[in-house]
What does this fold into?
Amino acid sequence: MKSASRIPPLRRLSAVVALLAVWTLPTTAAAEGRATVFLISLDGMRADYFERIVTPFFDELATRGAYSMETTAVFPSVTFASHVSISTGAKADVHGITLNSFYDTRTRRLHRYAGDQALLEAEPFWTTATRQGVRTLVLDWVNAHNQTGPHATAYFGDSYTRGIDDEERIGRVLDTWEHDDTDEPLRFILAYAESPDKEGHRGGPDSALVDHRMEVLDTLMRKTTDRVRGLWERTAGPDDTLYIIIMSDHGMAPVEYHVDLRKGPETDERVRTITSSALVHFFFDDIEDPAERAEIKAGLKRDLGALEPITVHTRESMPAEWRYSHPYRTGGLVATVPVPYAFFRHNGEEMIQPASDTGRFFGAHGYDPRDHPEMNTVLFMQRWPEPLGGIDLGEISLLQIHATVCALLGIDPAPTARADPFFEP
It folds into this structure.
């Protein structure tokens, strides 16, 4: 635990220091040379982790770089939809990845943690970069696999690599970079780590599991950053610039109750359900008769809506801010629960069971960030050779990362991406 006298620098930077950092920033560092961007996502990281956990390297990043402890997530705040919103700068109604697993009524196919890029309906920033002449490396990033066509990145994987730890996963990316031997260097490199999301699910966001893992990640990020700088320096010119972005896709909320819909209202066997922690999709396309389909849909909406704490939306009546009404990958009904509830199968007889009775799954995400700020997350950015000087970026959006990466690389964002970067060189 951090003592009261040791408040992290990212919490105590004064407005005067931040202003001085902005006033003294060199404005030509990236303009005269070429920029390289290394971006890594640490899954499921909350801002308040840094208030209670000793993280000297992240503190140093905040002091010397730029940071946001108010990085707003998207809905639904789940790993696949969030990472695709980061890479495309768009929400689910545009990019089409509605959950970690989703059903497509157009093809009648269920996609479970499917990572092929062909499933994307908006352009990700690795394609945007490659299309504009920036050599790119991306391994184990959501929906970056099995790329095809003229704008496939220099390196990508066939599928997500399972069964390895974060250090090995990051090491594979850096090893690939190290062995790249071409006249044109890699300038956009993407990496991913599963923690602290795994520990947050198992023990909850306030658990010792998360505390320990964040301390390990702090050390790992220092080692990673040092190696990234060394790899970049092999080919960097005197006026070139390196940006390292360490970010996350969503936060984590505590789970006190599990909601098992198998013990709720009976549903027609033709109704397909896709379940995540905070929301469930119901698809009715297997019911051929339109009148019967409407009747079953209305009945299920009525029955589920009568149960606390469930809220039910039709695809047409969802909050506009969600941007979630995809025409064939969003269910005809979507049920949600608030924190501290989560949809989860359990062995009890009641639909709602205390999480303590199951002994597992004490953290979840996917909730609306507007109602549950626990879903929001963090971002750190550093620049070499000239540090940024401790800039508090304030409130930024995950949707701005695409445009920011493009601004750093000196290229145009994709046509469907949000176009306003949170930082420009």
About this structure: Confidence is low (pLDDT under 50) at residues 1-31. The chain has 13 helices and 19 strands.
